[in-house]
Give the backbone structure.
Amino acid sequence: MLTKREPQSFIVIIVMVLLSAVCPSELMLPAAGQTIQMPHQEELMLPEITPAMQSQPVDITVSFEQPCWAPDEVRHSVRVYHDDGSSIEELECQIYDLERSSGEYITACNLVFLLQGPGDYILAYDDSETEAPEYPDHVSVGEGSYYYEPVPGYSIDLDYYSIMDDGSLIYGIGQRGDFFGIDMAQKVIKQLPGSETFDVQHWGQLASYAFFWYEDRDKGTDEQLVSKEIVVDGPLMARVGIESTSDDEKVTTTAYYTYYHSPGSEKRLMTAVTHVVHKQCEIRGLEEEDGIYAYLLTVRARSSSIDKLNLGVIPPYLHVSTEDGTIHEYRLDQNPESTDYKWLLDTRDDIDIGSPAWFSIDNGDSGTAYALIFNTSTPASSDARPGIQIRAVGRQEVSIPGLEVDGGGISGGRNAYEQGGTHDLT
């Protein structure tokens, strides 16, 4: 289980959120001849559903007015139906976080299902034992280890969670280890479409949810794994938790990663992150690294002798939703030629994220985009100035005969500087 500590200061970020929770109300039964064979039925009062929301996941807390038979997350009487006005269809669903009343009965739970367009969504259940639903198990969580040393002294060595959806590997989530010297705890690796195994040649872009700062050297909560757990592993949704810390134990990060089944090509990982500062951190050296909450890491590797290492691409554009209500566009260096940091956006540029709060690396008007979407532009903190400041940097990470690895990082961090003010370095 993940441990809990009393924080001196904290920051909470939820990256990519779903519909807010609602409770059921009394059902107005559908037209005559269209019935549901369950004794208890209620309508789920959802926000307005549009055709564009087809197949989007819903995760809500529901309370049961009558006793609901549900011994566990697999054997239960809970069903969800969609009434589009002409017919009623049973939908695949999943329950978790059961609140038990007594024995095999529950009073509330979380309910997951996929939207099927406009219409009424009906919750049905029974107070007697029923057959367990036989829905496809779309989503699964696994654990694995990966080691690859293409060149002596340059290796990939990590432990990870894998998130599978209908047989395809969608995400790898780093528990511990390193990638060519980059620590990998709290790093998410988006796999290329159609990947079935966890291998470097299948890696797309990466995102980090560790906390970073520069105190005489790079420090971050990706350095040491504290604990990990599989919280939920159901047919439509999976959730894992990882707690990690910096080597000096000054800062701890606890992150919960949630994935929902998605039948389309667009994939999302929802992440709830808490950074806890146990001891004061002072920025000494690289002042741009003054407290980073999360970042996108883009990697491009080229090898003249190892074909497997010809991987990755640095997208040409960075787009940022800014506090002035506009979207700023920047060109990324797709082939950095120096091992020194080259800043596209640094602290003094004072680019703060706006509302809606997001930034992306992408191909422009069309093509693939990778984005971080925050639930707020002003994360909760006990001591920092409200806001999230964007920084962007690139450099050549590895440059040896036969192997070049280029990298770029776009981060959202502490709002440590405002034009005309002083830079907060503690």
User: Anything to note?
Assistant: DSSP finds no helices and 30 strands in the chain. The first strand starts at residue 9 and ends at 15.
